[in-house]
Amino acid sequence: MTTSAAPAVGGYDQLAPLYDAFTAGSDYEAWTGHVLALLESHEWSGATVLDVACGTGKSFLPMVRRGFSVTGCDSSPEMLAEAARKAPAVPLVEADVRALPKLGAFDLITCFDDSLNHLLDELELSAALRSVAANLHERGLLLFDLNTLLAYRTTFAVDSVSAHDEALFAWRGDSAPDAAPGCLAAARIDAFVPAGEHLYERVSTLHEQRHFAPHRVVALLATAGLDCLGVHGVRDDGSHTTELDETQHLKAMYVARLAKGGDPS
What we know:
Blueprint (H helix, E strand, L loop, with lengths): L1 E2 L8 H11 L5 H14 L6 E5 L8 H5 L3 E6 L2 H10 L5 E3 L11 E6 L10 H12 L2 E12 L1 H5 L5 E6 L2 E7 L10 E11 L5 E11 L3 H10 L2 E9 L16 E8 L7
Parallel strand pairs: 1-4, 2-3, 2-5, 3-4, 5-6
Antiparallel strand pairs: 6-12, 7-8, 8-9, 9-10, 11-12
């Protein structure tokens, strides 16, 4: 595992051993199928993939199973340790998305699970987009999702409880049903795991996010030397619409490529 010094974003080091249980309801195989269909609609072809903010590897394993050559990177060493246990043959790099080392020229760069929403201002998002662009092949595509305003007015504005195996998760959102564009939001996840007979250990993590308006994201892509090819809505089943409606879709999927004649460095 290669290492580039970078702070872990949010409380993912603490959550790492429980992350797969927390996200057990997410169907990454189906998600990947929809991603590949979207890429096909943009006439993409390629073999090499960089999965940024790859976490425990759930987002890249379906690509590995489909024969792609995948590299993963994340700022959390504990999340990467979980990924390494699942996929020991996949190169994994500890790095901050805002300052990625030169890892190659990839045919596809992905960043899923609203990871970029953890960057709390436009300067950080701009730095991340420039950093990613520097690792993109001249004919490659960048694909990333962001939470929409609807997500901050619903998911981040409620409390909920879920369970998987013996772990119990309490989600407490601090947003509001009338959250404004560009809002800051946070959610606290309290995980309760067995720690002996009739005893549970609580693991508490706080996850802060920023909403980025689509027109601002498109503008930041341009300043990073990237052309936005599409802003798609993500349906509940993971499939994509041609256009995004922030009042109807919880996630937006952005597709971009290097601008012709642009210099992302």
